[in-house]
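Per reviewer request, we include the raw input and output of the structure prediction for the construct analysed in the revised manuscript.
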Amino acid sequence: MGLTISSGILVDFKENEPEGYEAYKVIFDNINTILIKNGVETYQEPNEMEIKPLQFGGFPYSFLHHLRRFAAHVWEHKDNENWDWTPTPFSPEEEPEGDAILEDHYSYMSSHLLTHSDAEGFYIPVALPEVLFDTDKAPVPGAMIGSSYDLLKELKSLTKHLGISLDENNDVTNIDELNKIVADEGDFWIEILVCVTLLDAAKFSINNKTAIAFN
């Protein structure tokens, strides 16, 4: 099994899984309870769309940690005078878990990319003051609720360092080149794969006003 990233989940469940549809309606009600508690306007997840819901799936949950480690190292250097810093590939023997710089950035709990469950949870197309947390009375899978807008902004801060080119609509313009790097398992291929996947999900979420769901 691997991580599934989808957007438009109520539409999908309404058409294919009525029990799941009712269960997720409750979850989105709980998300709105959390939004109200934090002074944020409520959000209505659509249950009808003119286009098909978005779904990606298949890569291991651990791949997220590779992108998060990369992000932490990029952000660690962003205030340096030499912003043209170029990342050096990590050793294959070095797992992201336990990386000191990543652990530091985890502790800040300010990043929407980092402060999120690996296996479940939501990003919603709403501007949030910070990552929000569920409560015992309003539980949400993954416990943490992020913003698709902040996720997109954070991902865009990484694209230059991963060699990902974007146009004014945040569409990737060198996808063939990136696909070759991924296919050949070149430098940062895992980070590129996850970043491009999340970029697509964030754009879909914002454009269609649908939450990103991790499963």
